[in-house]
Design brief:
By secondary structure, this protein is an alpha/beta fold. It has one domain: 3-Layer(aba) Sandwich (Rossmann fold). Helix content is 34%, strand content 19%. The chain is built from eleven helices and ten strands. An eight-stranded mixed sheet has the order 1-2-4-3-5-6-9-10, sandwiched between helices. The chain has a two-stranded antiparallel ribbon with strand order 7-8. A hairpin with a 3-residue loop joins strand 1 and strand 2. Helix 3 crosses helix 4 and helix 7 crosses helix 8. The longest helix is centred in the middle third of the chain and has 19 residues. The radius of gyration is 18 Å and the shape is globular. It starts with 9 loop residues before the first strand and ends in a 9-residue tail after the last helix. The relative contact order is 0.16. The mean pLDDT is 96.
């Protein structure tokens, strides 16, 4: 595995179900700006949290989304779901999306106890968006605002999932699947090559492979055979759908139907120009930061009708 170090953060550990250890990573809010709240970033199917949200790339300013939001007053956190990164991996299960939502319950409880936060913002990407949405459905009282990036609802019309289903028997037959450098590159080549630069892709691959050489199959099985996993009518918190222009994980029609059924009028649907799947690792990553920051810093509503 590659040697990658993460700096400037605080390591935390909590437990789920009494004996399952979960790793959390915190970049605290800057002291010289107004405090903006707490945000928990939720990773996807094929990598742990730090490579996704605290990636350092030489010559790429503000490459770490955690650093960028911390500098603007957010207490930023990410967590390795069970089966990924530094969190426990020993249970003989495939660590599906429901289990990931259970991790978020344990993680948010720890963050609230540690910091005194009453609510927090959640950002999830890909299967992490499904985990975040399911968690918000179960625990709306803990969520201030919910951002779902690279989200999929029913899977109808998804070219990525159509291709992935060809390997569903293989994924269903085992709890983990191997990953390597070629696989990481395939994430950026499958939809629209050229949306990410090689230096960032290579740094991302180094960071992912420094922590894992295999990842759970559960989220792939869920996304290929068990959708829908969340009910938009039961997601009552303010929600934003973030859809990359070239992302093949979900069709526009699938996401628009989901968006229409969200009951809270405080909701947004944003198309991110020039973005494919892994938005924070794209050439247009700063526009993604801006979109997310604008949603999380909306002023309180004065009139609600």
């Amino acid at each position: 595995m590659n040697e990658v170090t993460w700096q400037g953060g605080i390591e935390h550990w909590t437990r789920k179900g009494g004996d399952i250890r979960l790793f959390l990573w915190q970049k605290p809010a800057a002291k010289d700006v107004p405090f903006q709240g707490t945000i928990l970033f939720v990773h996807g199917s094929s990598m742990a949290s730090q490579p996704t949200f605290d990636l350092s790339v030489p010559g790429r300013p503000d490459s770490s989304v955690m650093d960028w939001f911390a500098a603007r007053g957010f207490d930023t956190w990410c967590m390795d779901n069970e089966g990924y990164g530094r969190s426990d991996k020993q249970r003989p299960i495939n660590f599906d999306i429901g289990n990931g939502a259970d991790d978020l319950a344990a993680g948010t409880e720890y963050i609230m106890d540690k910091t005194g936060a009453r609510q927090m913002h959640l950002y999830g990407i890909s299967s992490g968006a499904l985990k975040a949405a399911l968690f918000a459905q179960r625990h709306p009282d803990r969520v201030a605002r919910l951002a779902l990036d690279a989200f999929v609802w029913t899977g109808e019309g998804s070219p990525t999932l159509e291709e992935r289903r060809k390997k569903l028997p293989e994924f269903s037959a085992r709890n983990r699947r191997p990953i390597d450098r070629a696989f990481v590159h395939s994430i950026f080549n499958r939809d629209h090559p050229g949306t990410a630069d090689e230096a960032t892709i290579n740094a991302f691959a180094n960071a992912i492979l420094s922590l894992d050489d295999s990842v759970p199959t559960g989220t792939y099985v869920d996304m290929c055979s068990r959708l829908p996993l969340v009910d938009p009518a039961r997601i009552t918190v303010p929600t934003m759908i973030m859809r990359g222009e070239y992302d093949g994980i979900a069709s526009f029609d699938d996401l628009i139907r989901f968006f229409t059924l969200l009951p809270n009028a405080d909701k947004q649907f944003t198309v991110m120009s020039g973005i494919s799947h892994a938005s924070f690792q794209q050439k247009n990553y700063l526009s993604v930061y801006h979109i997310l920051h604008a949603f999380l810093t909306l002023p309180p509503q004065v009139y609600k009708g």
